[in-house]
C-alpha cells in the first residue's frame, strides 16, 4: 500500500467522459464534501463486513446506517474499494446480466464499457479506488456535482490539516466557508490539464489564507506525479486560491498568463 500524502491534492478532469482522477482524496473527505448524502451504495470491490447481500446481483450493498459505519473504517487498507450509489433497492433486483457484467467490469478494471450510469439504479456516482487516497477515479453523472464538491473539499482539507484550538484546548468555530461556483469555474480550464493543490505550502496571515496551485499534467501513475511535482514545486505556482479572513470571500488568482 502506498504512503499517501494528505497535504497535497492532485486532480485531473476528463470532462468528455465525466470522470476525475484524484490523489490525496479519501472516501471520508469525499462523502463529507458531496452536496447530497449517500443513502445507498452497491459495493463492487471492498472488505467491509457490514453490508447487506443481494441475491440478484450477488453483491453487498450498504444503507445509510452501514455507510456511517463504513466512514469510520480504514478503507485504504482494503486495497480496491469500488462502489456505485443507487436510489431504490428494487433497482438492484431489476438489473439484468448485461448490466451486472458492466458493473463487475467497472469494479475490476476501474474503467467503463459504457458510461457507468444505470437507469435502474439512477446512480449519480461511480467511485473506483486503489489504496483509497492514492488512486481514486470518480465518475460524476453531472460535473456540477464535482464542482460543488470541490468547493467544499478545499476548505475541508484546510480545516483538517490546521485545527486551531484555544488555550483551553477547545476547537475554534469553523472559519472557512465553501468556495462559490463562480470561483471554482475559473479553475475548469486547468482542471483538464491536471493540477496539484499544495496545502503544505499554504500561507496564513491575519488577513488571508493562500493556497498555491501548480499545473502538472495528466498522470495515471501517482508515483510519477509525486516525483515530478517535487521537481516542479521549486517553481512559482500557476494559481493561488485565496480566502479573505475578514470578508469571508474566496478568490482565484491566476499568475501564469498562459492559463488565463
How does this model look, in words?
It comes from Peribacillus simplex. This is Oxalate:formate antiporter. With about 260 residues, the protein is an alpha+beta fold. It folds into 2 domains: about 10-140, no CATH class; about 145-260, no CATH class. It is built from 8 helices and 13 strands. It has helices spanning about 25-35, 65-70, 90-95, 95-110, 145-160, 180-185, 190, 220-230, and strands at about 10-15, 20-25, 40-45, 50-55, 60-65, 80-85, 125-130, 135-140, 195-200, 205, 210-215, 240-245, 250-255. Strands 1, 2, 3, 4, 5, 6, 7, 8, 9, 10, 11, 12 and 13 form a 13-stranded antiparallel β-sheet that branches. The longest helix is centred in the middle third of the chain and has 19 residues, at about 145-160. The protein is globular.
Sheet with the most strands? 13 strands, antiparallel
Please give the number of β-strands.
13
What is the rounded distance between the termini?
38 Å
Helix content: 25-40%
Specify the number of helices: 8
Q: DSSP strand (E) fraction?
A: 25-35%
What string, H for helix and E for strand, traces the elements in order? EEHEEEHEHHEEHHHEEEHEE
Question: How would the global form be characterised?
Answer: globular
Radius of gyration: 19 Å
In the predicted model, the low-confidence regions spanning at least 5 consecutive residues are 164-170
Number of domains: 2
| Overall SS class | alpha+beta
What's the mean pLDDT score? 92
Organism: Peribacillus simplex
Protein name: Oxalate:formate antiporter
